[in-house]
Design a protein that fits this description.
Number of domains: 1
Shape: elongated
Number of strands: 0
Largest sheet: none
Order of helices and strands: HHHHH
Radius of gyration: 16 Å
Structural class: mainly alpha
Length: about 130
């Protein structure tokens, strides 16, 4: 897992603290999580256009950047689930909202379905 403070890649299986800077790597405040998430999501949207219209794909890319073990074949779903439950990965809703804001601000990060989603959202707002 990458430490959000010192950005070193550390093994936190023994405790939830970075052994270099002692940052609690599992219980970051929500706002700080979003601030750190923004450049990660922006980089993924820029370099992986297929993630612009697929939040599930985007989430998997974000989580694999947060923890390289996600990409390993021997990393089990159970290990992922426990880490996710303990707060080791960004929340799906935070990733989605970050993507949404970035696409609102930057035309180049918008996917093929952006305009369609905007029209659907407008229709929904009018019908409520």
């Amino acid at each position: 897992m990458i430490c959000p403070e010192c950005e070193s890649e550390e093994d936190i299986t023994v405790s939830h603290y970075c052994p270099k800077c002692y940052t609690n790597m599992l219980n970051n405040p929500f706002i700080e999580d979003i601030k750190k998430l923004r450049p990660v999501v922006e980089e993924i949207l820029t370099n992986h256009p297929e993630t612009r219209d697929n939040d599930k794909h985007l989430m998997l890319k974000v989580w694999s950047k947060q923890d390289k073990r996600v990409l390993k074949k021997d990393f089990t779903f159970w290990e992922f689930a426990v880490s996710f439950k303990d707060g080791a990965y960004a929340q799906p809703e935070s990733i989605r909202r970050t993507r949404q804001k970035l696409q609102e601000e930057n035309i180049d990060l918008r996917g093929k379905n952006y305009e369609k989603r905007q029209k659907q959202a407008e229709e929904t707002r009018k019908s409520i």
